[in-house]
Amino acid sequence: MRTQMLQLMLAGGCLPTVKPLDIQNDTGRLPNGGTSPVQTEALVATIADDYSLGAVATISLAHLSIDDTLSPTSGDAVIRATDSHAVLLNRLNTDTVQVFSETLREPDTEIALPDLSNPQDAVFCDDKLWVSLHNSDTMPIFDIENSLMVGSVNLEEWAGTDGHAEASTMVRQESSVFLAVQEIRQDDAWVSDGGTILQIDCQSTAVIGQFEIGPSPVLKTGTEENLLGYKTGIYGDLDGEVGLFDVDGGETHPLVRESSLGIDIHDFAFSQNHLVYSVASEDWDFQLHCQNLTTGEIQSSPVTSSYLSDLSMDDQGRLWVSKRTGWSSGAPEPSGLDVIDPSTCQSFLTGGTPLQLTLPPFNVAFR
């Protein structure tokens, strides 16, 4: 049914057309951190407001031209980029992983996952695809040439009374994968049992390091190769923080704490010189804060009633913000993708009008 609805969108000419846009000419600003960008496109998972269906899209990083509703997804899906591949993780009782090497119109590989396993992230390591599952005590490893499971990582030590380790996000560093294990008691009001970062060897799949970091951790790329970004915290408890994790020494360097802010941190992203994080009030109003990592100066965006579902940084130092209709009582704002300058916390886009897709964006990755 979902596939049929998306086919009707395509047949009915519902695809938006976006005039190519040169961001530098439009705004006069195109930060690149002194490096040469290698990414060429944004990969976008889009999902209907009622979470009934979804689709994937791509956006040119050079011109912001949109290629929309390329392939259907479940009503709960995230997209990742790893080793030039796009990996789509379907959830919501449709637990599969799809791998795309070129366009996003048809997957090269599709692998069924255990029912209700709730896949979270995927990375290639040692030419095999590792997929983290929130509702499992193992992490499967696949050969995408034949779609077979060829190994796994045993996470039983970090599984609680619910039988799950709550494996979450991953970052590959050379011959290791760093995995955030959230250790939440899903059978006991989602109470935290801790929160650990595991270092796993790609060849042996053995856990070669473990670091207690705090409740419900999330990992992302950080400011340098050996400094990963992390976030901890259970929603509503003001027990979390955002900072940098030193993979060499296993040390954390907190940069902002919820207890100091008096509000929950929802998501975060790092460029070479800035940390951007979103906060969410009890009324589901959101706001962005952009922190200069050299001076400590903080710029903030206006409060929005939109649900900021995802923050992702491209390799030009631009923050992509997925804006969706949320649960705030404030006046609704347009859904879409905004592109933010982390040095000012203001939009690069003309008039601050977000990029419009057929379905609202849920998350973004880059390749």
Task: Walk me through this protein's architecture.
The chain has a four-stranded antiparallel beta sheet with strand order 3-2-1-30. The protein has a four-stranded antiparallel beta sheet with strand order 4-5-6-7, with no helix packed on it. The protein is mainly beta and 367 residues long. The two termini are 30 Å apart. The N terminus is likely disordered.
Question: Stretches where pLDDT falls below 50 for ≥5 residues?
Answer: 1-34
Helix content: under 10%
Kindly, what is the distance between the CA atoms of the first and last residues, rounded to a whole number of angstroms? 30 Å
By DSSP (H or I, 4+ residues per run), the number of helices equals 3
β-strand number: 30
Shape: globular
Mean pLDDT reading: 91
What are the SSEs and their pairings?
Blueprint: H1 2-11, H2 23-27, E1 41-47, E2 54-60, E3 66-73, E4 77-82, E5 85-90, E6 96-100, E7 109-112, E8 119-125, E9 128-133, E10 138-143, E11 148-154, E12 167-173, E13 176-181, E14 184-185, E15 191-192, E16 196-201, E17 207-212, E18 218-224, E19 227-231, E20 241-246, E21 251-257, H3 258-261, E22 264-270, E23 274-280, E24 286-292, E25 298-300, E26 307-313, E27 319-324, E28 336-341, E29 346-347, E30 361-366
Antiparallel strand pairs: 1-2, 1-30, 2-3, 4-5, 5-6, 6-7, 8-9, 9-10, 10-11, 12-13, 13-16, 14-15, 16-17, 18-19, 19-20, 20-21, 22-23, 23-24, 24-25, 26-27, 27-28, 28-29
